[in-house]
Structures are given as C-alpha cells and as structure tokens.
C-alpha cells in the first residue's frame, strides 16, 4: 500500500491498513517516545496511546504537509501530556533573567556517534531534556515550547542553554 491508500484504509477503520501504518511508523515513534520518557516501559505506553490518538484523529488529516510530521506531532503532544500530568517537568524552574554565559564549544560532538549523543541527551534532567528535544530535534520555537509547557519563553531559552552546557560538560568528560 502506498501512503495515500494507507491513510484511506485507516480512515475506513481497515485493520490491515492500521497494522501496516503501525509497522511503518512504530520504530520511529518509539524513538520519539524514548527521547521524552527516558524509560522503555513508559515509552511503550506512550507509543500505544499515540497510535490510539492517530487512529482516532486520522479523519482530520487533510493531506496538507507531511503525514509523518502529522503523526510525529501527535506523539510529541502525547509525551508532553504525560510529562505535564505526572509533574515530571517540575525541574523546569521559572527564571527572571535568562543565562548570559557564552555558548558551549561543540567541537567534542565530532568525536562521538549519534547513539552516544542520544544517550547523553537521555541523561539530562527531564525539563532540560524536554526543551532540548522540542527545540533542537523537533524544531519548535521557544514561544511554542513556552505555550506547550506552560512556562515563560525566557525559561525555555534558559533550559535549552543549560541543557547545551550540561551536554558540553558531559562531552568533555568522555
């Protein structure tokens, strides 16, 4: 099935199309869930919840934009709902003054693999990791992050800056 047939089948509640959609995107979406939860069991729960939402909302997909991007946004929102509901973002502290220290040196990134970098990101505190994922990986703006997480835009910037510094420190320790 091509993507258009797959979407049409899912809109018609065709279990074969739903299974194929799951098999096509489960691995990528599991990676998204793991980036936000940092716990395999929770990530698996988020994966299931995300696909339930995808199948429930697929009728609203209009064909504008990337289908994978549409799915990814559902999974990111599912992960964010989980983080908010379970107060996991409590380490995201409101700050009046954003950090003004110099930018980290990224030359150490050239010495590690993508998997090692993902492992380092997973070690970040939840608030830092969430903002880092949303800004650096998902491409959200700080304004969008602030709205999604219920924080100030300056806090989003600060959390991202602190995440980068912490990653730099971890890279230097390698």
TrEMBL record:
Keywords: Sigma factor, Transcription, Transcription regulation. Residues 21-87 form the RNA polymerase sigma-70 region domain. Residues 115-167 form the RNA polymerase sigma factor 70 region 4 type domain. Belongs to the sigma-70 factor family. ECF subfamily. This is Sigma-70 family RNA polymerase sigma factor. It comes from Coprobacter tertius.
């Amino acid at each position: 099935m091509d993507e258009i047939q797959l979407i049409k089948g899912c809109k018609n509640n065709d279990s074969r199309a739903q299974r194929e959609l799951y098999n096509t995107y489960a691995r990528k979406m599991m990676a998204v869930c793991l980036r936000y939860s940092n716990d395999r069991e929770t990530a698996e729960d988020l994966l299931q919840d995300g696909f339930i939402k995808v199948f429930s909302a697929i009728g609203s997909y209009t064909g504008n934009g990337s289908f994978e991007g549409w799915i990814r946004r559902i999974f990111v929102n599912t992960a964010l709902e989980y983080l908010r509901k379970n107060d996991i973002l409590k380490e995201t502290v409101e700050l009046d003054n954003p950090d003004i220290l110099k930018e980290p040196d990224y030359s150490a990134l050239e010495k590690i693999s993508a998997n090692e970098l993902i492992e380092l990101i997973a070690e970040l505190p939840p608030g830092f990791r969430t903002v880092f994922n949303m800004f650096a990986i998902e491409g959200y703006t700080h304004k969008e992050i602030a709205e999604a997480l219920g924080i100030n835009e300056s806090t989003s910037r600060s959390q991202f800056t602190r995440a980068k510094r912490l990653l730099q420190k971890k890279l230097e320790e390698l």
